[in-house]
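Continuing from the previous page...

OK, I double-checked the sequence for SEC14-like protein 2 against my notes and this is the correct one:
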Amino acid sequence: MSGHVGNLSDTQAALLAEFKERVKDISKPEYDDYFFTRWLRARNFDLKKSEAMLRNHIEWRAQNNVDSILQDFKPPEVVEKYYTGGLFGQDKQGALIWIEPAGFIDLRGILMSVKKQDVIKSKIWLLEHIYLLFEKKSKEQNRRVDQMVIIFDLYKFGMKHLWKPGMDVFTDILTVFEDHYPETLKKTFVINAPRIFPIAYSAIRPFLSEETQRKVAILGPSYKEILAEHIDADQLPKHWGGTYVDKDGDPRCPSKIGPGGDVPSAFFAQNCLIDLTGFTEVSIGRGSTHQLELPVSLAGSIIRWQFKTDGFDIGFGVYKRTSDKRQKAKDMDTVLELGRVNSHMVPEDGSVQCMHTGTYILRFDNTYSWTRGKKLFYTTEVLEPSGRDNGIPRCESSQSMSDQATAGEDAVFVNPSQT
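Thanks. Re-ran it with the corrected sequence; updated structure tokens here:
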């Protein structure tokens, strides 16, 4: 049995009745069996876990004024103009389709323009709007419409998209989606996945439930044929294998699907990125250095960093040890040449892909300053690649992962602040 209304086993039906009795103190007239079974399916019909999840959701809605968000909040202009994606059509069973050309998003530009919480709040606003659309479509079409199919197009997705603050926002949005809009996702198709996709997926996988992971399929070059098995041609833009085009003939239909693009500096606001929560603080004395040792055990791993200094600039470089013994910088392999950065003005961030295993050194250099010590705030992370068959779902008829070369993908080092 599917666990959906109209297709419940006797055991599931009994659990539904008991669940409704358990939560009757927080129930509302609009909460129907479809609503309650969503929370049950999200926790595999475990009554205790489902009840805890629903009660947490009700409290979350109250704390964040979600019931009135459509009236009280308007997404910032930069989010409306430059956040990628949009709703387009329905699949053959009626699920709404969301197309996300994620490779064209400039999350750094967005986060330099508005606060992180405004971006997350904009996504909550969007989900509430989608749920109203579910109700409207259900009434108009005389069938239950309450799920979505998401198409993630990763063409142009590269190293700069692994920028930690941007990934943190994405995982926060995923957490909201998983915890408060359960069973909304019917299926996710990932197309045009670049070679670094296993690393990106390994970073977000811990935030996905097992059920959500089972709904993700990685499609190969024949993805248009596979999408056609699930979606009629008139319900997809021509660019993704359908027949629909914008009024001006554009096959990507940017009038409905946000195309993204670089955010103009006119939108930038001061101090939007300066949130030092979770950063490590150290003091570097005058004429001194501070080195971080990061062991890399899997070739292809990515080291990410973000740092800020208080008041003055700092030298920064990345090296790889050539010996197990302690070495000076001149005796190590240079991965990123040492240079002075104005991290006191704008937080510095970047990443490097480690093509070889070993110990990598992040070196903060203050040897040029004989009069001033520096206060440094930093955070680092090593992202290891997942194997192609290690937890990454694939469509049965898909081919191997695309080997396309995307912008920034073949570069060993990408500093988003310079792109």
